[in-house]
């Protein structure tokens, strides 16, 4: 795929080259895994604190955003792992993600310039899904913002976008003249995601912290033995679950305790099943379903634009986004279901006559939970209505599909 460049400032994002790959010759993986791969021809791959644990559990390791990451494990197929996370709990190593802290008197104003979130009114110890925006309202990266205090925030960004995001942040500080901001990257911290209906049960065994206090989006400082870890009730699967930030030297021990004390409940899960789970939940993958030419409104994510921000503006791309909120967009992200060969990323979408090209698929795979092919993509606005019949161009043959409601699998967030 082509190298993406920033439309605001023209900053090239050399480490965000998107390469489409299928990570295993097995049918299950070639059917389900489509993801970014880091070009590591001259740069050694980094390892997360759980690298040796993955190998010990028979992980198939592959390059991902500069890291050697587990895609599958020999004890479970992707379909089996999908079922396990939907019924028990899966432990995902997401230590490759970039964890940031921002402090200083200008930090709230800065975040309100570069995101559409109502950061000012965000309650302390609350996290929300958001995005960095360029001057045209395009999505530079999708992120999670957590407010710890009026002058302190914790943000998680995508690993593949690290260099581009850092350049963007420096550029934006200069553009907006906001200088009282201390920005640090938590290089010495691991990040684990525990996801599934029994995640709370498993995690509660390791702490006296009452996890029922944490609703979806809430964050707390959780004591575990002689340490305290930041834990947020969130995730990327549509299930109840947690993301836990752990000092690097304690990450392995914490993961082993989770697995050892809950071995009938918790199993390691790789990036292959993570991709299937997030698509079933209707969640976007940056670089596939979102990019710098796409606005939140086109992506059917208008809810990320805070009510106050819609009136007051003051953020990158406000004029474009305000117009789209009022007048609509020429294209929108929608979901699809189909049978037969699955529609993959890049498949062209036609109207039901097969004569008019109306869009393209951005993510697609056979869903273990739904039992049918699912996909998402962008179509012209007049074709976005549910139950609209379409045709996918799959290997030069047009195959029928239908616009469907997302998420494909109901979410089970703890609210």
Automatic annotation (TrEMBL):
Cellular component GO terms, alphabetical: glycine cleavage complex; mitochondrion
Record keyword Transferase present: yes
Domain GCVT N-terminal span(s) in chain numbering: 50-307
InterPro entries membership: GcvT, GcvT/YgfZ/DmdA, GcvT/YgfZ_C, GcvT_C, GCVT_N, TrmE/GcvT-like
UniProt domain Aminomethyltransferase C-terminal: residue ranges: 331-409
GO BP annotations, alphabetical order: glycine catabolic process
Top-rank EC class of the record's enzyme: transferase
Function: The glycine cleavage system catalyzes the degradation of glycine.
Protein name (database record): Aminomethyltransferase
Source organism of the structure: Lipomyces tetrasporus
């Amino acid at each position: 795929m082509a190298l993406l460049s920033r439309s605001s400032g023209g900053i090239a994002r050399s480490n965000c080259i998107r390469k489409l790959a299928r990570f295993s010759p097995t049918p299950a993986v070639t059917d389900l895994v489509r993801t970014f791969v880091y070009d590591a021809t001259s740069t050694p791959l980094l390892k997360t604190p759980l690298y040796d644990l993955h190998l010990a559990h028979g992980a198939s390791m592959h390059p991902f955003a500069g890291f050697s990451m587990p895609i599958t494990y020999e004890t479970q197929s992707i379909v089996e792992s999908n079922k396990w996370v939907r019924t028990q709990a899966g432990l995902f190593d997401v230590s490759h993600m970039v964890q940031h802290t921002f402090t200083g008197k200008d930090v709230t104003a800065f975040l309100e310039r570069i995101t559409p979130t109502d950061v000012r009114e965000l309650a302390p110890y609350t996290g929300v899904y958001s995005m960095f925006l360029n001057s045209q309202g395009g999505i530079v990266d999708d992120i999670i913002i957590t407010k710890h205090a009026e002058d302190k925030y914790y943000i998680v960004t995508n690993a593949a976008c690290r260099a581009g995001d850092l350049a963007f942040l420096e550029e934006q500080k200069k553009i907006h003249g906001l200088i009282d901001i201390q920005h640090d990257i938590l290089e010495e911290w691991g990040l684990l995601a525990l996801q599934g209906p029994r995640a709370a049960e498993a995690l509660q065994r390791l702490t006296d912290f009452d996890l029922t206090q944490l609703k979806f989006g809430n964050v707390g400082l959780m004591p575990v033995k002689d340490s305290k870890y930041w834990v947020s009730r969130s995730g990327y699967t549509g299930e109840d679950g947690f993301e836990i930030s752990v000092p690097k030297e304690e990450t392995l021990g914490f993961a082993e305790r989770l697995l050892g004390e809950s071995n009938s409940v918790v199993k390691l899960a790789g990036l292959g099943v993570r991709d299937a789970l997030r698509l079933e939940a209707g969640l976007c993958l940056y670089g596939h379903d979102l990019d710098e030419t796409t606005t939140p409104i086109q992506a059917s994510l208008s809810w990320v634009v805070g009510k106050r921000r819609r009136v007051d503006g003051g953020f990158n791309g406000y004029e474009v986004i305000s117009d789209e909120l009022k007048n609509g967009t020429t294209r929108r992200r929608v979901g699809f279901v189909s049978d037969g060969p699955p529609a993959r990323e890049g498949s062209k979408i036609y109207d039901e006559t097969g004569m008019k090209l109306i869009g393209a698929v951005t993510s697609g795979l056979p869903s273990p939970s739904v039992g049918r092919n699912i996909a998402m993509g962008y179509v012209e606005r007049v074709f976005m209505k549910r139950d609209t019949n379409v045709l996918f161009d799959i290997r030069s043959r047009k195959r029928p599909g239908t616009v469907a409601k997302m998420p494909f699998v109901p979410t089970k967030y703890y609210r």
